[in-house]
Amino acid sequence: MFRKYLDIKPEVAKALAEGKAVVALESTIISHGMPYPQNVKTALEVESIVRENGAIPATIAILGGRLKVGLTEDEIEYLGKAKNVIKTSRRDIPFIVAKGVDGATTVASTMILAALAGVKVFATGGIGGVHRGAQETYDVSADLQELAQTNVAVVCAGAKSILDIGLTLEYLETHGVPVVGYQTEELPAFYTRKSGFGVDYRIDSPVELATALKAKWDLGLQGGMVVANPIPEAYAMDYDVITEAINSAVKEAEEKGIKGKESTPFLLAKVKELTAGTSLDANIQLVYNNAKVAAQLAVEYQTLQNK
Ligand code: PSU
Ligand code: MN
Fold first, then answer.
1. Pocket test for ligand 1, best of 25, 26, 27, 28 (most atoms within 8 A of CB)
2. Shortest-distance atom of ligand 1 to CA 32
3. Tens-digit pLDDT profile for residues 198-234
4. Is the pLDDT of residue 286 over 90?
5. Residue among 85, 83, 133, 164 at smallest CA distance from 259
């Protein structure tokens, strides 16, 4: 039934049919997470890195109401420039399809489309989570509920401290979502390698990660996995600089009454502005690093599956 809504890029369809590794990539990071032209440049470079590490990239979005698993270079360029692309999470998908318009997929909706196509591994920058002050606002990203129910592993650089990282971890624990540290015992906080919070398990190699993922799904344990991969040391930001920028961004969002789906994009843009763009460089580098680990994981997972 769902197939009539779905356009899988031929190269991706072929890889899936042949049991080759595929890595899903999201598009909200392109449309709402980074400015043009860095967004397009990064998205294309991420695809190359996935290829260099032995997997086929599938950037995911909704274009003209069609669910696209795998975009062409022109489509990525279009998404990066377009002004009217709608940030699309789980609840939005049916309406973007029904109206036949363009939607950039968040972590939640990218997981949904990846799962429909049979893609198991996904690389991004950071996931959404429980926002600071959520005790009052109830602002909890739909990404977390998606991780609880959809079978896709998400390689990210941890959670940004625009969020309440402690509450985000509690939420994931309640919903049975494993939070794995890739070569780290501490959960990274996106721009920095440290957050002050531990991970559930430290895993040091892609094959070990793949083995755990396969066991999870073979056992029918529904849901995803957060693979938290720290930003490379050379690109990590100064803890005090980024903390101050984030605190002032959160304060400004509160004062301006920014709510709902606008909240995350507002905070991301504000932090970038306050750090004179150095956070954008860090953001780009950590996404590259996640693409590499995701491709390696996808290759090992596929090797186990094909045995
Ligand atoms: N965090 C980032 N960069 C991003 C996002 C989050 O560091 O681009 C995007 C992702 O697409 C994520 C979404 O899924 O924001 C979460 O939005 P919300 O909090 O409204 O669910
Ligand atoms: Mn929200």
1. 28
2. 8
3. 999 999 999 999 999 999 999 999 999 999 999 999 9
4. yes
5. 133
User: What residues pack around ion ligand 2 (CB closer than 5 A)?
Assistant: 139
Rounded CA gap, 234 and 247, in Å?
24
CATH code of the domain in which 89 resides: 3.40.1790.10
What is the tens place of the pLDDT at every residue in 144-177? 999 999 999 999 999 988 999 999 999 999 999 9
- For the chain, helix, strand, coil in percent to 5 are 55, 15, 30
- Residue-number span of the structural domain to which 250 is assigned: 2-306
Residue (of 177, 61, 57) closest to 119 by Cα position: 57
Domain tally for the chain? 1
Q: What percent of the chain has pLDDT over 70?
A: 100
Residue 228: helix, strand or coil by DSSP? strand
Tokens 């274009």 -> residue: 63
CA angle 167, 128, 286 (to 5 degrees): 110
CA atoms in the 13 A half-sphere facing the CB of 60: 31
Please give the biggest Cα pair distance in the chain: 56
Which pLDDT value is given to residue 277?
81
Write the CA distances from 3 to 7, 8, 54, 61, 69, integer angstroms: 8, 9, 27, 15, 12
Q: Is the pTM of this model over 0.90?
A: yes
